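call fold(seq) -> tokens
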Amino acid sequence: MITLERNAAGEGAVAGRRLGGEGEGGISVIICAHNSAARLGPTLAALKGQSTPREGWELVVVDNASTDATAHVCSESWVGEKVPLSIVREDRPGQARARQAGIRNARRKYLCFVDDDNHLCPGYLARAEEIMDRHPDVAVLGGCGVAAFDGEKPSWLWNGWQSHAVGPQGRSEGYVGDERGYVYGAGAVIRRSALRELGHAGFVSELTGRSAGALGSGDDIELCFALRVLGWRIYQSPELRFGHYMPASRLTWEYCLRLFSAYGEANAVLDLYAPWTAAGPRAAAKRTLPGLLWHEVMELRRIKRRLDSLAEGEMGDFDVLSRMEAAGKRDAILRNLFSGRLLSIHRNLRRLFRHARNAARQQYPMEEFVKTGAVEGVACK
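ret:
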């Protein structure tokens, strides 16, 4: 069955407000596609070869302001398939908006985000469903991307390996530790009820992902961090493997420089989440507005020392990428300070933290609430 829809304009907030309960069982695979007609063939072929999850699955393709035959390729390729396909048109360009449209139109318990250049190995969906069913405290499950290069792999690429959403995200299957705290968005499986809670908490993403050629970054990481503030956990499994096609345009040194600059800009926001998932008086002090401002001033000083210590370097030198990341972060911090965006970020994080504390108070009697340390952290979910 193939359904075509045009998406109505949505809010900037997480679409969890519109998700009712757990949804039907199984998995909704969401592909956000912009002018993807030439890339979707192998992606759809890999999905056709999936072992069926115990509770079934559906496919939702978001045609994000495409000007090519993306929708036509999807519908023609899926003729005769038993798995239902919905094609949603989102006219506002941008990865984050496309994902919101996909979430609003998905009906299943778990949501699996597959990029138009991701080729899931057989059994990916069935295994993901098993893991999520077994771990009800997990909000996001990550897999392991395996690079498929268009041409020869550049000798320097190992330096930015995970920057291209490939490679294992842990030594063995298990929970992602606090030091990392996230999985990359490609191939990630998200629990519908966790998104719903995030929406009810009033979360608004500060990072919007890629749009119209801009290498926006970090929206997938921010989602993981926000869910961790609410007490959810992140999990990864190297068994969940998918091919990640790497076109030649993404294998240039210039592209890598732009990418790391975008990482720096994103890190200016992502680093602010750390105090809200930690316990203790130092973390509590950083959660105050004066503490946040002082942290940003000190961070600018650290970045200056870091830039002074890094060599100019040449192509393939990781110091060059580090300089791009540091400079991007410095510029973003200054913009956030002078534009007032820092206040918006602080209000957003405070809303999440208060929601988590209120939920913890409802879950535990007051004496247990204090005993578990829920006043300082949110690990009591």
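The first strand starts at residue 2 and ends at 6.
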